[in-house]
Structures are given as structure tokens and as C-alpha cells.
Amino acid sequence: MEKQLAYFDVLANAQKQILNNTLELQTEMRTQWIDAVSKSYAAFTSIPGVPENAMTKEALTQFNNWFGTVANASKTATAEALKAQENLIGAYDKQVATNRDALKNVIELANPILAKAKLA
Question: What is the pTM of this model?
């Protein structure tokens, strides 16, 4: 029984490590994405040689409004995605515990039957 449970634990832990690595990667990508968005905004709003008149000021105001909305939506969406990933990992942990208990019960039920089969 211990071999089967050890094998199950190895598989479950490998999958858990993949989930954790994915979460770390997503967190890092979110940080880099937000940094890239901020740098893009700074680059666009500091273009040299743009004449300052009512039309360019209005365009910049519109751009600021649009860009702020998109940036905030992106931050919110990525934060929610990270929360969903964390919830998935929590659900996975609970499911693994349940499956491990079920496997243990099946092994305990099967052991007497296997022992009888070996004697026959």
C-alpha cells in the first residue's frame, strides 16, 4: 500500500509544482506587463515636437482617458486571473487529499482479495 500511495504523492506533488510555477510565472508576467504599459504611456506622452494647441491637448486628454481605462482594466483582469489561479491551487490541494483517501481505502479493500488470489 505504501508504494501505491508514494507513487500517488509523487504524481500529485509534480502537478502541484507545475501549478505553483505557473502562478509564479503569471505573477512575474503581470509585473512586467504593468511596467511595459507604464513605459509605453510615458514614451507616447513625451513625444518631442508635438505642437501645443487646443487640438493636441484634446487628443492627449482623450488618450489619457482611454489609456487609463485600458491600463486599469488590464490590472484588474490580471489580478483576478491570479486570484483564480490561487483558488485553483487550493481546490487542487483539497481534491488531492480526497483522492488520496479514496485510493487508500481502495487499496485497503483490495489487499485481502489480492492475498487470497495469491494463495489460490
Answer: 0.70
Per-residue pLDDT band for 6 (boundaries 50, 70, 90) equals very high
List of long-range contacts for 69-77, beta carbons under 8 Å, 24+ apart: 71/34, 71/37, 71/38, 71/41, 74/33, 74/34, 74/37, 75/34
| Cell 479514496, residue located | 102
Residue 33, exposed/middle/buried by CB under 10 A (0-12, 13-18, 19+)?
A: middle
Instruction: Give the C-alpha separation, 111 to 90, whole Å.
Output: 32
Written as nine digits, the cell of 71 is: 491600463
Confidence at 117, pLDDT banded by 50, 70, 90: confident
